[in-house]
Design goal:
The structure is a single chain. This protein has 308 residues and is α/β, with parallel strands linked by helices. The chain folds into 3 domains: 5-58, Winged helix-like DNA-binding domain superfamily/Winged helix DNA-binding domain (Arc Repressor Mutant, subunit A, Orthogonal Bundle); 66-84 and 91-151 and 277-301, Periplasmic binding protein-like II (D-Maltodextrin-Binding Protein, domain 2, 3-Layer(aba) Sandwich); 165-272, 3-Layer(aba) Sandwich (D-Maltodextrin-Binding Protein, domain 2). It has 12 helices and 11 strands. The strands form 3 sheets. Strands 3, 4, 5, 6, 9, 10 and 11 form a 7-stranded mixed β-sheet that branches. The radius of gyration is 23 Å and the shape is elongated.
Length: 308
């Protein structure tokens, strides 16, 4: 089945902008032309591709088509690179990925930076919780993602990267308050001190409370700091307790650990998060280079994957 490139472009632009009107403006054609192209594409495929509401969204079939469009664009870009003159050093290729914030700020960026420079690659990063990054790949928005989900999507591969181990940290004032609360009350002391969370998707704190102490309480005070530096500063300033990955403790915050500005509040208690790299089975050469760099970086910086 041959698909019309103009129809595919109209569909992709509509989903990416969330509006047929914006897509028409971006493509420099009329709104009617966008609508006609998408209707013709839906007729050819026999599937409804768009949910036409206040914001245009892809249906399930539309998400599958978006993934196809994304892969096709990468393969075409790879072909263009292969055919380009060896002396042409002006070509840059964008590679979109979805990565959890802790990985991106530590081992991931360290591991891929040389590949990006050597092969003139532009990393377009989407930051999301490791439980939600796979959705970006499923929607066709990225070519690879770091996730804690092991099962690959259809047409994709999933490769184990290793384990990020999270420890519960706080500054000396939080440690002192925790000791004081343990003496004064029978209630779980940790639940009386605000937790530091990345955002409302962040479930690590609940997992830590349950796995380390058997606490199923979900109603406890918490701050939200959806930026790594702000999160760490809040921990240093004693706004609450938080979870920090061991790789970050080694690579970024070692000085604060060694100086005692941050303390492991529960030595020996931690939570392990296994990570996987998901990518399309049919990768371009440049995407394959990125995949190789990601896997090597994880091997160097993460704890080994745990076998069942």
């Amino acid at each position: 089945m041959a698909l019309d490139p103009k129809q595919l472009e109209a569909f992709a632009a509509t989903v990416q902008t969330g509006s047929m009107a914006l897509a028409a403006k971006q493509m420099h054609i009329t709104l009617a032309a966008i609508s006609i192209r998408i209707k013709a594409l839906e007729a050819q495929l026999g599937q409804r591709l768009l949910i036409r509401g206040k914001t245009a969204q892809a249906t399930r079939a539309g998400q599958v088509l978006l993934a196809h469009i994304s892969r096709t664009r990468l393969l075409e870009a790879d072909l263009t690179e292969r055919l380009a003159s060896p002396s042409d050093e002006s070509q840059w290729l964008a590679l979109p990925v979805a990565v959890n914030a802790d990985s991106l700020a530590s081992w991931f960026l360290l591991g891929v930076q040389e590949t990006l420079r050597t092969h003139r690659l532009l990393l377009h990063s989407v930051v999301d919780d490791q439980e939600h990054t796979l959705q970006w790949l499923q929607n066709g928005d990225v070519l690879g993602c770091v996730t804690d989900l092991p099962k690959p999507l259809r047409g994709c591969t999933a490769q184990p990267l290793g384990t990020m181990r999270y420890h519960c940290l706080g500054n000396p004032a939080i440690a002192k308050l925790l000791r004081s609360l343990k003496k004064k009350t029978h209630a779980p002391a940790l639940l009386q001190i605000p937790a530091l969370c990345f955002n409302r998707k962040d479930q690590l704190q609940e997992r830590f409370l349950m796995e380390a102490f058997g606490l199923h309480e979900a109603n406890y005070p918490r701050h939200y700091f959806p930026a790594g530096d702000a999160y760490h500063l809040a921990m240093l300033e004693g706004l609450g307790w938080g979870l920090q990955a061991d790789v970050q403790m080694r690579l970024q915050w070692r000085g604060n650990i060694e100086s005692g500005r941050l303390i492991d509040l529960f030595p020996g208690q931690y939570i392990d998060v296994p990570l996987y790299w998901h990518s399309w089975s049919q990768e371009s050469a440049q995407a394959a280079r990125l995949t190789a760099a990601v896997i090597e970086a994880a091997r160097l910086h993460l704890l080994p994957s745990q076998t069942p």
